[in-house]
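Reopening this ticket.

The earlier resolution said the output was attached, but the attachment link was broken on my side. Pasting everything inline this time so it's all in one place.
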Amino acid sequence: MTSCRLNNWTIECENVVNTQINMEYWASYQYYFMWSYFDRSDVGFKNIAEYFKKASEEDREHAHKLMEYQNLRGGKVILNTIPDVSLDFLNLNSTSNDVLLSFEKALDMEQRVYESLLKVHKTADEEKDPQFTDFIEGEFLKEQVEALNDVAKYVSQLKRIGNNGHGIWNFNSTFKNE
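Inline output:
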């Protein structure tokens, strides 16, 4: 039985929303850690840092929307410990392109969030809850597909630039945070 007293929300829906809330907080936390790296004085890519900060804020907003929705439907929000985040994907002891590696990490994260949202949508559909499917479609899926496309384009651009220091500096200089 769900914690819902309104009898319009199943335990499956309540659980999948809580899973997504925690996924969004994990992504936000990881993006914020990436912001802190690029904002360091010995890295100095301000525009890239701001991109990751904005991504962190957006994922935190998504978690907030999902929490509001959980409350609207009569469910109970359950927050878990955020899994470890790290910069281990960067090879800080080499001349690797930390910008490319970070955007590849971002692409992987966006894909994981998208796959999780698809599970949320599938659960809503299986539970025959058209309002819930509409909420996920209208608030999250389109935006997530657009984010995947944007990050994939950045990865493509960075692969073309390669490890060219001036090219990476120029990428940062002209990088727009829309």
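Reporter confirms the inline version is readable. Residues 119 and 146 are 18 Å apart (CA to CA). Residues 11-78+91-174 form a domain with the Ferritin fold (CATH 1.20.1260.10).
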